[in-house]
TrEMBL record, chain A:
Source organism per UniProt: Billgrantia aerodenitrificans
Domain of life: Bacteria
Membrane topology field: Multi-pass membrane protein
Ranges for domain ABC transmembrane type-1: 66-253
High-level lineage: Bacteria, Pseudomonadati, Pseudomonadota, Gammaproteobacteria, Oceanospirillales
Cellular compartments annotated: Cell membrane
Pfam families to which the protein is assigned, alphabetical: BPD_transp_1
Gene3D superfamilies in alphabetical order: MetI-like (1.10.3720.10)
Protein name per Swiss-Prot or TrEMBL: ABC transporter permease
Record-stated family: Belongs to the binding-protein-dependent transport system permease family. CysTW subfamily.
Residues spanning the membrane: 12-34, 70-91, 103-125, 131-154, 183-203, 234-253
Automatic annotation (TrEMBL), chain C:
Keyword Membrane on entry: yes
Phylogenetic placement of the source organism: Bacteria, Pseudomonadati, Pseudomonadota, Gammaproteobacteria, Oceanospirillales
The organism of origin for this protein: Billgrantia desiderata
Extent of the signal sequence: none
PROSITE patterns associated with the record: ABC_TM1
Protein name: ABC transporter permease
SUPFAM superfamilies, per database record: MetI-like
Membrane topology: Multi-pass membrane protein
Entry superkingdom: Bacteria
Domain called ABC transmembrane type-1: residue spans: 75-282
BP GO terms, sorted: transmembrane transport
One Pfam family here: BPD_transp_1
Coiled-coil intervals: none
Length: 268, 389, 295
């Protein structure tokens, strides 16, 4: 039927358009970095320049925000990863009728809008005299990032053969030795992935951060505020750099993940 | 080194379910001891009790005459070879073997000495630096053994270690395990559902069913003098005929086989048989041979239903003309060539046997393994409890 | 439960696990939420008035929303727009999910998925910003449209809801594509072939065979998209205008411009209730359970 063929062609056409739709804005934004025009755009093209990179490098506010983002991300790693591991171990070990309820509670931060997490964190710590800043940002972000860590660790933990724990104990290891020498090394790949994801999630978070960041800024908050006040293509320059770094990161991560998946098939 | 193991009135319950009925057992130091029984009989549970993974609901475990109550797994003088081996996949062979020593704080040089020596013992020299994932099934098996031996246990517990291996490898490993046991003098407690293995390797075997030990004895005794109907039917092949005792004279028992006529056999087991009591006569296929219809002694007429040629012998599946029960007969060199050529389905033959070869046991309803399905069928409640030594 | 932990990990480690889990669930997840609800039920008081006669539980903060015309309008507009965004995202994502799951070869699908994921590693702010540039009054979209002669004067895309909704669809599309893709993927190819073989056209095949099977995925995608849209701050902030404020922006104002945290807490709680309500509604309509919402 030719209508079938038309639809099939239409679908492929649609997919192509879709990907153009997906990438075009980013390409345009990247291109605007090099346009010598005060307002970031590609039309009209006023000449090619690199001066916006210079302006970006000179922006003290940006460097401070970047530093804050890194500090917060590190803090989130320190808080969320142990919590995520602990939760995964807990869920893997315990059987109880309360488990479904606990599981729902554990996943709830993932389903709660970011702004609500930010608001509740802000309100809670006010009574202790702690107001918005790096500390609250770390806590607010870690609240839901810990759940992501838990999911990633659990995925790996579920494939663990618990007979090995018994073997370790049988050979004389204490429970701590078993954990440190058998279980933890097994979890390492998941821990690395979880750490990377946690770091990135923290770095790019906006909704929650906005409410708990106080007078400090993180990079995302900084970019957003720049767009609304004081917009120049320097923002595009920052965007382009971030895109390149992210794509590099993503490529490395994906390659590593595929290699891990291939190794999993061999039964490690 | 005292590697004796003693179970003192051990009971294991999981909720309402009793996995191990009251059991007492003594295993000698340096003995190769097997637990044999169908799936679910409780042999793995007993192994877990000895190793410390399970705490018995009642009773005591002694290893080397020391009570093991309150002693956790990682402090017992036992080591276990798991069914799926449980080698540590992220470690090399060396690291696996040395693990038990490492957690005890033994220094690196000494550890390496021990693992090199053990690798030689299990014929895997040079494989030390390899990752365990690179090894074949048989090689992994040997690493598991070396790893367990490294901690110098007094008792080695083996949980169906050969079940995952192919036939040739299994036979090879049987010999190796036996050799290692003799060389090291460690008590081996071996569990399996494969009677060939158990009978072949062990000094003594405990036959188990449904949480109870039916009999503990050396392989030959188990085969020739089974103590219960279960052991008689489970170990080796056996034909099972129901009859009623007429009278006993010493060991010899005369039985009324109903439609099968008068039968005779040898009393086994510790129970005394009384006249008129219901009993079971067990006669093995290899003890039956064709006789003339007028010959003296017990006779069974069977109609051949199938002929299985097995090379060195012929297995006949027959059905008793008088009662319709099945009778399996194994014929070998006592067949003349002409007789062998004429065996055919539908043919009727009369089989006889020497009463000294047939075992008579009380019909106490002990569980029996169904020939066709391989399932354990509970008879009426068993008479004596499994308290044997 | 603690006994099981201790049996496996030993006393100290088990304590550490329970402590970490407790801190997280109690101090970071539950108590702040409860506190937020409590705040929403109290009036905004000066420090001096706390503990005094005015400090009592009241629903006044909630009443404010319904009495304030502007806020009420914005609240309902947010709901309505989020629903539209969800439907739009679903419409845009469905063909792509279908293509990935059933039409593309495994290699094409793998490549497409990789291409899909890359933009989503990039910051939501930057992606929204890129639309800002396109939709700008003097931006490329206007230029191209004028060049093609379709319009005479540039359109103000960035005023009103249009720009915001387009931005949201762009921002959250992955959260719809993946669940729907996963759901369609599990459909047996032969069912589609059978339907075609029996004479069903494309529309009917999808309506009667594919969509019912993909329901859990569609439900998951809708829930996630709606919640992201309703709770979105970045997109309306960057792409919106004063005339098209989003509910989250009002909440923000209560905290950082009005200084009335109690009021803000009430509005925030309403947003939470809205999201949970939508989620329950979808789960009921589509008959899916919490377990189906797997990422």
């Amino acid at each position: 039927m030719s209508s079938q063929r038309f639809l099939a062609f239409g679908l492929r056409f649609y997919v192509v358009i879709f990907f153009i739709y997906l990438f075009l804005p980013l390409i345009i934004m990247a291109a605007a970095t090099f346009n010598d025009s005060r307002f970031p755009t590609v039309t009209p093209w006023d000449g090619t320049t690199l001066r916006w990179f210079g302006e970006l490098a000179a922006d003290r506010g940006m460097w401070q925000a970047l530093a804050n983002s890194l500090i917060v991300a590190t803090g989130v790693l320190v808080v969320a990863v142990p919590i995520g591991i602990a939760t995964a171990l807990f869920l893997n070990t315990v059987t109880s009728r309360a488990k479904p309820f606990l599981y729902a509670l554990i996943l709830s931060p993932l389903l709660t809008p970011g702004v609500i997490i930010g608001i509740s964190t802000l309100i809670f710590w006010r009574q202790f005299g702690v107001s918005g800043g790096i500390f609250l940002t770390v806590l607010g972000q870690a609240t839901f990032i810990a759940a992501y860590v838990m999911l990633m660790v659990t995925a790996r933990l579920q494939r663990f053969d618990r007979t090995m724990e018994r073997a370790a104990l049988d050979l004389g290891a204490s429970q701590w030795q078993m954990f440190r020498r058998i279980l933890l090394p097994y979890l390492k790949p998941a821990l690395y992935s979880a750490a990377v994801i946690a770091f990135l999630q923290s770095f790019e978070n906006y909704n929650t951060t906005l409410f708990v960041v106080g007078y400090d800024t993180t990079l995302t908050v900084y970019i957003a505020s720049k767009v609304r006040t004081g917009l120049t293509p320097a923002v595009n320059a920052l965007g382009l750099i971030l895109i390149l770094v992210t794509v590099l990161f993503a490529a490395i991560y994906e390659l590593k993940r595929r290699r891990e998946a291939a190794r999993a098939v061999q039964g490690v | 080194m005292d590697g004796s193991v003693r179970l003192d009135e051990v009971v294991m319950r999981f909720g309402d379910f009793t996995a191990i009925e009251k059991t007492s057992l003594a295993i000698g130091s340096g003995e190769f001891f097997s637990f044999l029984g169908p799936s679910g009989c409780g042999k793995t549970t007993l192994l877990n009790i000895v190793s410390g993974f399970l705490v018995p609901s009642e009773g005591q475990v002694y290893i080397g005459d020391e009570p093991m109550a309150g002693v956790p797994v990682n402090r017992r003088p036992t080591a276990m070879i798991f069914q799926n081996l449980a080698l540590f996949p992220l470690m090399t062979v060396f690291e696996n073997i040395e693990f038990g020593l490492e957690v005890r704080g033994v220094d690196k040089r000494k550890r390496r000495e021990v693992s090199e020596r053990l690798l030689a013992l299990v014929a895997l020299e040079g494989s030390g630096p390899k990752m365990v994932t690179e090894l074949s099934g048989g090689q992994k098996q040997r690493v598991a053994i070396a790893r367990a031996l490294a901690v110098e246990p007094r008792v080695l517990l083996l949980d169906e270690p050969l079940s995952a291996l192919d036939l040739k490898l299994r036979q090879h490993m049987r010999t190796e395990l036996k050799a290692i046991q003799r060389k090291t003098g460690i008590t081996f407690i071996y569990i399996t559902h494969d009677q060939g293995e158990a009978l072949n390797m062990s000094d003594r075997v405990a036959v188990m069913s449904a949480g109870r030990i039916q009999q503990v004895a050396d392989p030959m005794t188990l085969y020739r003098q089974p103590a219960t109907g279960f052991v008689a039917a489970f170990v080796g092949e056996n034909n099972r005929l129901q009859a009623r005792v007429i009278d006993c004279e010493g060991e010899r028992v005369r039985l009324d086989g109903g439609a099968l006529g008068e039968l005779a056999g040898r009393a086994s087991g510790s129970a005394r048989l009384s006249n008129g009591e219901a009993a079971v006569l067990f006669v093995r296929p290899e003890h039956l041979r064709p006789v003339e219809p007028q010959a003296s002694g017990p006779k069974l007429e069977g109609e051949i239903e199938a002929v299985h040629f097995e090379g060195a012998w012929v297995m006949l599946e027959t059905r008793l003309v008088a009662s319709g029960e099945k009778l399996r007969v194994q014929l070998g060199h006592e067949l003349s060539r002409s007789q062998a050529n004429t065996l055919s389905v539908g043919q009727r033959l009369v089989f006889g046997f020497d009463p000294a070869d047939a075992v008579v046991l009380p019909d106490d309803g002990s569980p029996v393994v169904d020939e066709e399905t391989g399932e354990v069928v509970e008879g009426r409640p068993a008479a004596a409890g499994g308290a044997h030594v | 439960m603690f006994r099981q932990l201790r049996a496996r990990f030993g006393g100290p480690l088990a304590m550490a696990i329970v402590t970490l889990l407790g801190i997280w669930l109690i101090v970071m997840v539950t108590l702040p939420q409860l506190q937020m609800i409590e705040y929403s039920l109290r009036p905004n008081l000066l420090p001096a008035q706390i503990g005094g006669p005015d400090d009592r539980l009241t629903l006044a903060n909630y009443a404010t929303l319904f009495n304030n015309d502007i806020h009420r309008t914005i609240f309902f507009k947010t709901i309505w727009s989020s629903v539209l965004v969800t439907l739009l995202t679903l419409a845009v994502s469905y063909p792509l999910a279908w293509y990935l799951a059933k039409v593309a070869t495994p290699r094409q699908a793998a490549l497409c998925i990789l291409l899909l994921i890359i933009p989503f590693w990039i910051n939501e702010i930057l992606r929204t910003y890129s639309w800002f540039i396109i939709l700008a009054f003097r931006g490329p979209l206007n230029e191209v449209l004028m060049m093609l002669g379709l319009i005479d004067r540039p359109i103000r895309f960035l005023s009103g809801n249009g720009g915001v909704m387009v931005g949201m669809v762009y921002a959250y599309i992955l959260f719809m594509v993946f669940p729907v893709y996963n759901a369609i993927e599990s459909l047996d190819d032969n069912q589609v072939r059978a339907a075609r073989d029996l004479g069903a056209g494309t529309v009917r095949t999808h309506r009667r065979i594919v969509i019912p099977h993909a329901k859990p995925g569609i439900a998951t995608g809708c829930i996630m998209t709606f919640m992201l849209a309703a709770g979105s701050y970045a997109v309306p902030a960057l792409l919106g205008s004063p005339g098209s404020r989003w509910f989250t922006q009002i909440i923000y104002n209560w905290f950082f411009e009005g200084g009335n945290w109690n009021q803000g807490a009430a509005y925030a709680f309403l947003l939470l209730v809205l999201c949970i309500g939508f989620m329950s509604l979808i789960m009921k309509v589509f008959k899916v359970g919490l377990g189906d919402i797997g990422k």
